[in-house]
Amino acid sequence: MKTTNNVQKGKKGEDIAVEYLEKSGYKILDRNWHYSKNAEIDIIAENNGILVFIEVKTRTSLNFGHPFEAITKSKIDKIHTAILAYMKQCLKKYKAYRFDGIAIIGFNNPVIEHIKNLGQY
User: Does this model's pTM top 0.85?
Assistant: First the structure.
């Protein structure tokens, strides 16, 4: 289970990711969308007619590995389940759907890495 400190770091990382996405022209549609206890989508956004599902991982440093290392196959499977559930109930149709990952490293002048197309639907 996440400690309160880790939850706060994760929220701050997601806030940084949202600011980055908005500056990059993304429209944020939802945050922390829960399908089940174990399946959550951090950010759901629209960009150029594409519905984008985004997993955000945050680290204060690289001492414990790169944030993207925490996006495991098991995590991707859970997110995939949530994406399918979201798309099933989504009333608006999009030309495409995409799954992205964003890594946030540090909080003062954070390094932001954005990998697009971890999966397309």
Answer: yes
